[in-house]
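Sample intake sheet
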Amino acid sequence: MQTHDLVVIGGGPAGYVAAIRAAQRGLSVAVVESEEKLGGTCLRVGCIPSKALLESSHKFEEVRHGLAQHGIHASGVELDLAAMMKRKADVVSTLAKGVEALLKKNKVTRLRGFGTLAGAGRVEIASARGERTEVAAERVLIAVGSKSVVLPGIAFDGDRVGTSTEALSYETVPRQLVVIGGGYIGLELGSVWRRLGSQVTVLEYADRILMGIDGEIARQALDMFRKEGLEIRLGQKVTSARAAEAECVVEVEGSEPIHCDRVLAATGRRPATEGLGLESVGIKTDRHGFIPVDEQFRTVAPGVWAIGDCVPGPMLAHKAEEDGVAAVDGMTGGWCHVDYHLVPAVVFTHPEIAAVGKTQEQLEEAGIAFRKGVFPFRANGRARTIAETAGMVKLLADATTDRVLGVHIIGPSAGDLVAEAAASMAFGATSEDIARVCHAHPTLPEALKEAALAVSGQAIHA
């Protein structure tokens, strides 16, 4: 029986990062992963392929409709969907090979198969051919990630009625696409297919889109998406969705059925913790399927840790990576901490949406007095030069200490701009601290500086 200091179950962002960190710490490490490609859902059928399609579809739309203002007139523009999909696949393949190379470089053993706990210090690996082997480990780290939630009544068929996985690989552009769910997955993929020619209808159960995002930002986003051509219906309770002979039918409570070519169910994700053999070591998940852990990611079972999407906290790839580093550092005597209040979130639509820290609604609900600074991109020189003036930066600071409590951005390169905000907040910066930092001109980060100045009513350019 193979023996390792650490066996990691799962080769996604949490698992492979933890494995590399453990190898750096001098441990003998193995990663158990059933998929051919390493990198998890994020790399194979999530973050990376969706962003590749978002970029390609944005370029297609920009060439068709956005270049005339720059004095560039294009004609005869055609979509080669197969080539676009091949580029997406090539990006995924290249990055997956990169992860594999990193594991080899760090002498991490790759074990192919589905890993389950088989009692204390043992992991059973089932291959695709049904062969079963066991490995022994002093430590086991569970990093199995999450999977899509399909609501009752949705007759998922893995083709015409599917999840984000299927929506990343349509062979033709749907004439009509219904997206169930107005979160970041539904809006991102809905945007992709709208740009490529689909008539996209987004059905959201709540009275707003992007739950968890600052309300003011979400309202701006709703207006922008509708102007772009997304049909977004709020307060929609979907009771069923199915593929009929020549079409798909979506039933909505109190409304006429919607007929379409394809249905994308984007109604959230849940931990992929079923069938892991947790009972063999006395671990019970909570009602949502999460594995309870302590501040060092230890489970109730001695020698077993858990990280990433299968433990409570933001279900984001970068959070999972931080979990992996922290857990390994903790188990090897180092510092172990991840501040979940400072995990940035990004929606890669156009314009992008990004946030870190508390929303205005959260502060109001908690009774925390704050001051708000807002700066619109239409007043930013760089935004003007690149013709990306929609949106704003919103900064929330404690009314007494001036410490930055939240930053919310909708506009160009929001996902990049939020990094400065996250770093500033990690060091306990005040709005004055950010306002006094010299930002290069003309650049988009100047909008964050101006929002910080606006907290005290001293914005220069607005």
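Comment: The chain has three domains: 2-147+270-340, 161-267, 351-454. The domain at 351-454 is CATH 3.30.390.30 (Enolase-like; domain 1).
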